[in-house]
Write a structure and sequence with these properties.
- The structure holds two protein chains of two kinds.
- Chain A is mainly beta.
- Chain A is built from no helices and eleven strands.
- In chain A, the strands form two sheets. In chain A, strands 2, 4, 5, 6, 9, 10 and 11 form a seven-stranded mixed β-sheet that branches. In chain A, strands 1-3-8-7 form a four-stranded antiparallel β-sheet, with no helix packed on it.
- In chain A, a hairpin with a 6-residue loop joins β4 (33-38) and β5.
- By secondary structure, chain B is mainly β.
- Chain B is built from no helices and eleven strands.
- In chain B, the strands form two sheets. In chain B, strands 2, 4, 5, 6, 9, 10 and 11 form a seven-stranded mixed β-sheet that branches.
- In chain B, β9 and β10 (107-113) form a beta hairpin.
- Classes of the chains: A mainly beta, B mainly beta.
- The A-B interface holds A 32, 34, 36, 38, 42-46, 49-50, 53, 55, 87, 89, 91-92, 94-101 and B 35, 37, 44-47, 50, 61, 63-64, 97, 102, 104-105, 107-116.
Chain lengths: 107, 123
């Protein structure tokens, strides 16, 4: 199974900050990685797929990069509605797996 | 507008069975692979399994933790996805989400999620 390790697991930041979350895969997954956002009590929402393609309707302050085993999600200027938990997920091979999540909280 | 609405979650005893449903609308259901993903209380996301479309013979994939106990099926005429869960264990307690899969570059990823339904396994 492909393990995805996210760091940090918890992040405290202020509105306007630039935030970067890293996801490392235990083996190469090409660009078959997605990023999802989840707010408390809500379903996850797709932000980015294929490592760097922004899902329709997602603000351009979100961006993704990487390939192989190392990936990043960047929020260029954190907004109040961005405080949530973020999960990376690989769709290269079965079983599909998720990272452990990064909780972004208000400083 | 794509909508996925799960139902069927309940309190069930260990060893029991439960069937979840997911009603889809706003897209051509029969074209898409569909998945189930779960989330235990206060925990992260765990993929449960997938069913492919008719063009791919409705074949299925499962996580090792549920293989042999859970069965995914679909009824394209009703735009519905199902998850039959047997021999339930306390560790199956979770919110269960159905998710639509979209194919890009030969791989399928989740682009829309339902709101989830809670399954509690407890005596």
């Amino acid at each position: 199974d492909i393990q995805l390790t996210q760091s940090p697991s918890f992040l405290s930041a202020s509105v306007g900050d630039r935030v970067t979350i890293t996801c490392r895969a235990s083996q190469g997954i090409s660009s078959y990685l997605a990023w999802n956002q989840q707010k408390p009590g809500k379903a996850p929402k797709l932000l980015i797929y294929a490592a760097s393609t922004l899902q329709s309707g997602v603000p351009s302050r979100f961006s993704g990069s990487g390939s192989g085993t190392e990936f990043t999600l960047t929020i260029s200027s954190l907004q109040p509605e961005d405080f949530a938990t973020y999960y990376c997920q690989q769709f290269n091979s079965y079983p599909l797996t998720f990272g452990g999540g990064t909780k972004v909280e208000i400083k | 507008e794509v909508q996925l609405v799960e139902s069927g979650g309940d309190l069930v005893q260990p060893g029991g069975s439960l069937r979840l449903s997911c009603a889809a609308s706003g897209f051509t259901f029969s074209d898409h692979y569909m998945d189930w993903v779960r989330q235990a209380p206060g925990k992260g996301l765990e993929w449960v399994g997938r069913i492919r479309n008719k063009a791919n013979s409705y074949t299925t994939e499962y996580a090792a933790s549920v293989k042999g106990r859970f069965t995914i099926s679909r009824d394209d005429s009703k735009n519905s996805l199902y998850l039959q869960m047997n021999s339930l264990k306390t560790e199956d307690t979770a919110v269960y989400y159905c998710a639509r899969s979209l194919n890009r570059s030969g791989r399928n990823f989740f682009d829309y999620w339902g709101q989830g339904t809670l399954v509690t396994v407890s005596s």
